[in-house]
């Protein structure tokens, strides 16, 4: 049994009872048969209640639900803020309007409340993107200025241009290893846009890749990420601005730029380097261990062959020149850690 059917029955009974009273009243006025008038109006009322009741009850409710379900939460919040602002303005204006002579003193405050409420809701809904963007920007700025503490319980992390273009930050953040909110200052975003508009095809592709990575981070609800309008006065270079801002906010910089890494460390700024992280999570091989490697090319020294592991680690194989194009078993002789990454030196396994 549907709700509409129950509402129809209730409306039919209610309007039938009302028809009885109305028919009896009209019958007395017309000096006619009271029972006949009551019976006729009862049947008419019951029919009207059966047909009209849904259009006065359930149908409007369903229409309102459809409209509300199609309105975004951002629009609803903006409209609510606009309504509150409009009512506050109307309350301030209603007092002087109420001092006007009748009938203006009683009508204009009510009309003013309706007018200002409607006007404020309309303005706030039309500019909802700007208003919500301003609120989000203000909230993120407040969080950062409070020592960089975020909802995740850690300091905020500033992203530089190179680590955004690199793209690995999106995969690292998706794993959940970065708990702190990642912040992209507006001047870093401007540099990315400048690179994306470069006439050089390679730079333009790199810039667009960086913008795509930011878009991916922003759409991922599980990743704490925001774009801030914080800027640094008196510095033109993006790296300089980033280091100064990191010192002011006492938060680390996430980068894979070698020069920025060194400059930031010299100025006492904590640096999180994606390359160092990648090297740290690579598989560890000790001298004497055997592994398989596909020899791809000739090495710098005579007779050497060079191959690569799945994680990109270079393997230099002594006397491996003759094995180019083959997958061979080698024995690790030495592991060398450099700023560019990890290198493994090996020789062909015996037997």
Task: Provide a compact summary of the structure.
This protein is an alpha/beta fold and 351 residues long. The chain has helices spanning 3-30, 34-56, 58-69, 73-98, 104-126, 128-145, 161-166, 168-175, 186-196, 201-219, 238-249, 258-266, 274-280; strands at 157-159, 182-185, 225-228, 253-255, 271-273, 290-298, 305-308, 314-318, 327-338, 341-348.
Any overview of this molecule?
With 351 residues, this protein is of the alpha/beta class. α1 packs antiparallel against α2, α4 packs antiparallel against α5 and α9 packs across α10. It folds into four domains: 63 residues, no CATH class; 56 residues; 131 residues, 5'-nuclease (Rossmann fold, 3-Layer(aba) Sandwich), CATH 3.40.50; 66 residues, Beta Barrel (OB fold (Dihydrolipoamide Acetyltransferase, E2P)). The protein has 13 helices and ten strands. β6 and β7 form a beta hairpin.
The general outline is elongated
Describe the largest sheet. 5 strands, parallel
Helix content: 55-70%
Q: How confident is the prediction overall: mean pLDDT?
A: 83
What's the number of helices? 13
Count of structural domains: 4
CATH topology of the largest domain: Rossmann fold
Question: Given the helix and strand composition, which structural class is it?
Answer: alpha/beta
Just give the CATH class of the largest domain.
Alpha Beta
> What is the N-to-C order of secondary-structure elements (H for helix, E for strand)?
HHHHHHEHHEHHEHEHEHEEEEE
In quaternary terms, these chains amount to: single chain
Give the strand tally.
Answer: 10
Radius of gyration: 37 Å
Low-confidence region ranges: 147-154
CATH architecture of the largest domain: 3-Layer(aba) Sandwich
Q: State which percent range the strand residues make up.
A: 15-25%
Strand order of the largest sheet: 3-2-1-4-5
